[in-house]
Design brief:
With 408 residues, the protein is of the alpha/beta class. The protein is 40% helix and 19% strand. The N and C termini lie close together (10 Å). It binds adenosine-5'-diphosphate. Adenosine-5'-diphosphate binds next to helix 10 and helix 13.
């Protein structure tokens, strides 16, 4: 372990996707980022790293058209150089990896060793694209930061408290027993974080509070949190299930597969592309997957953009209402993610449909809670509250990594 004279709690947080690598050095004491950036289009003809340090933005071009493993390794090598150039390496205590799928094996964050790599490899069969990218990120970081403990933090771990009634599909049980086909849920670090922060804001003990949190970004999910634990969530075996999202359909009739293959000659890959890349807000609006663009178009009178917004909000409100079954009592609905933290329009449309839960919107507070501003947006006469809470998944990863490192 390095000695750390200044700040003993800086963690390099890596989020490795199939063609991108999001990174930040986070001060685990405060959640502030020291440096942050994104390597993107890895393996493409114009890969680059963009990063922000002390308010200044810089772009570095990377070598084009490399195989994925080399492209990721090169991005990490470049990241190591720029961390050293800015003298940030001596203050690092750990590397924290966001791992998308932990299967049933990982119920909390862990120090990465050979057994953990084997477990992540096994879980990667359930989410091959994300899983292999996560493994690439881990092996490149292990090679580059030999002296630092590497910690895996799983998107699925928070949801491992779900009961089998909630996580099983009504499919032949053998598929679950032999292949792990079940609902896992994602965005776990975000749901966990905003529940904790909301409990603090409302001065409630999190272990005695019931929340429904809506993480609304490009991917969207809702989580029912009972006494601080996830009891149900809208994403399933993969992050495709549940809500209408930017480009993902969310729930559909599985009978659609048969129709698309027999009537329209779709292949499995084409169906996967259709449901993951071409549906959701983009599919309905035929305009964009970006909520801001759709809101602007809807305000300007575009009826398909308005329909996309209305479907997004109806499906979200319906899912929130459904979670009253496991919760029975509700302290607050929480909005987070790029849309949840910024779109007063979406929040108003959703909460208007949920007035029967005793939530009355405070219109001014709803307008004020934007651009990273947390806030209570329900009126004082509400029996259940509504809250906007900016998420900070990187901080959770940094905290888990710093805490596990302290125990070594
Ligand atoms: P990711 O899931 O990739 O992390 P984000 O959490 O950043 O995504 O959310 C991206 C979404 O947030 C986009 O649909 C974007 O349009 C939306 N968004 C960001 N700012 C606003 C805003 N001011 N009003 C409405 N939507 C916004």
């Amino acid at each position: 372990m390095p000695t750390l004279p200044n700040n003993p709690n800086h963690v390099l947080v890596l989020n490795c996707g199939s063609s991108s690598l999001k990174f930040a050095i986070i001060d685990a004491n405060t959640g502030n980022d020291i440096i942050s950036g994104l390597a993107e289009r890895l393996g493409d003809n114009a890969p680059s790293i963009k990063y922000k340090f002390q308010g200044e933005k810089t772009t570095i071009k990377l070598a084009a058209n490399q195989a994925h493993a080399q492209a990721h390794a090169q991005a990490i090598d470049t990241l190591v150089d720029l961390i050293k150039d800015h003298n940030l390496d001596e203050q690092l205590v750990a590397v924290g990896h966001r791992v998308v799928h932990g299967g049933e094996h990982f119920t909390q964050s862990v120090l990465i060793d050979d057994n953990v790599i084997a477990g992540i490899t096994q879980a990667a069969t359930l989410a091959p694209l994300h899983g292999h990218a996560n493994l690439l990120g881990i092996s490149s970081a292990q090679a580059s930061f030999k002296d630092l403990p590497q910690i895996a933090v799983f998107d699925t771990a928070f949801h491992q408290t779900m009961d089998e009634v909630a996580y099983l599909y009504a499919l032949p049980y053998q598929l679950y027993k032999d292949f792990g086909v079940r609902r896992y849920g994602f965005h776990g670090t975000s749901h966990f974080y905003v529940a904790g922060q909301t409990a603090k804001m409302l001065a409630l003990p999190v272990e005695e509070s019931n929340f429904i949190s809506a993480h609304l970004g490009n991917g969207c999910s809702v989580c029912a949190i009972k006494n601080g634990k996830s009891v149900d969530t809208s994403m399933g075996l993969t992050p495709l299930e549940g809500l209408v999202m930017g480009t993902r359909s969310g729930d559909i009739d599985p009978g659609l597969f048969n129709f698309l293959t027999t009537q329209l000659d779709y292949t499995a890959q084409q169906i996967d592309d259709l449901l993951n890349q071409k549906s959701g807000l983009l599919g309905i609006s035929e305009l964009s997957n970006d909520c801001r663009t759709i809101e602007e178009a809807a305000i300007a009178g575009n009826s398909q953009a308005m329909l996309a917004l209305n479907m997004f909000c109806y499906r979200l409100a319906k899912q929130i209402a459904a979670y009253m079954v496991p919760l029975q009592k509700l302290d607050a609905v929480i909005f987070t993610g790029g849309i949840g933290e910024n779109s007063d329009i979406i929040r108003e449309k959703v909460l208007t449909q949920l007035a029967f839960l005793g939530i009355n919107l405070d219109p001014q507070a709803n307008l004020d809670a934007r651009f990273g501003q947390a806030g209570l947006i329900s009126a004082s006469n509400s029996t259940s509250k509504a809250v906007v809470m900016p998420t900070n998944e990187e901080w959770v990863i940094a905290l888990d990594a710093a805490n596990i490192t302290k125990e070594l």
